[in-house]
Write a structure and sequence with these properties.
Blueprint lengths: L3 H24 L2 H16 L8 H29 L15 H13 L3 H12 L4 H8 L3 H19 L13
Length: 172
C-alpha cells in the first residue's frame, strides 16, 4: 500500500493552491473554499487505496469537492425556504481596475444557481468540453448546454454585456 501520508503531503504541497482556487470559484468564499478542500481531502484519504497515483488523486479530490458543494447547496436550499435571505443594497463604491472587475464577476457568479455555477466553472475554468462537464456532473449534454446558456445570460446581464462565449469547436 502506498504511503498515503506522503501522497497527501505531496498533493497539498504541489496542488493545494489550485485546489483552493477551484473551491473558491465554486463557493465564492475563501473560508468555505478552504473547508471544502479539507473536507474533500478527509473523504478521499479516509479510505486509502493501493494503486493511488498523485496524478489521479487531484481528480478524485476535485470530484469530491464538486459533489460536496452541490450537496451543501441542496441542504441550504431547504433551509432557505424556512428562513428567507434578505440582501441589503450594496454601496456603490467607485472601484476601478482589475479588483473591481473581479468583485463584479464574483458577485455575478454568486447570483447563479449551483448547477449553473458548476457548469460555468467546469466549462471555462476547468476547460472541459460540454461532454466532459456532462460526464463529470452525471447528466446529459443538453442539460449542461441549458445551464451554460442560462448561466452565461445571467452573467452577461449582471456584468452589463451580452457577449456569449464561442461555441465548442468554433473559431477564435
Amino acid at each position: 500500500m502506498a504511503d498515503w501520508t506522503g501522497l497527501l503531503s505531496e498533493l497539498v504541497a504541489t496542488r493545494g493552491t489550485e485546489l483552493n482556487r477551484y473551491g473558491f470559484l465554486l463557493t465564492g468564499d475563501r473560508a468555505e473554499a478552504a473547508d471544502l478542500v479539507q473536507e474533500a481531502l478527509v473523504r478521499v484519504f479516509a479510505r486509502p487505496h493501493r494503486s493511488w497515483e498523485l496524478g489521479r488523486l487531484e481528480g478524485y479530490v476535485r470530484r469530491t469537492m464538486l459533489n460536496r458543494f452541490l450537496d451543501q447547496h441542496r441542504r441550504r436550499q431547504r433551509y432557505a425556504l424556512l428562513v428567507p435571505k434578505v440582501a441589503g443594497p450594496e454601496a456603490d463604491a467607485d472601484h476601478s481596475g482589475p479588483v473591481a472587475d473581479r468583485l463584479r464577476l464574483l458577485t455575478a457568479l454568486d447570483a447563479l444557481s449551483p448547477a449553473q455555477r458548476a457548469c460555468v466553472v467546469l466549462r471555462y475554468y476547468e476547460d472541459l468540453s460540454v461532454a466532459g462537464v456532462a460526464d463529470r456532473l452525471g447528466c446529459r449534454e443538453g442539460t449542461v448546454k441549458r445551464h451554460l446558456s442560462d448561466g452565461l445570460a445571467r452573467l452577461g446581464a449582471a456584468l452589463g454585456t451580452d457577449r456569449r462565449a464561442p461555441e465548442e469547436g468554433g473559431g477564435a
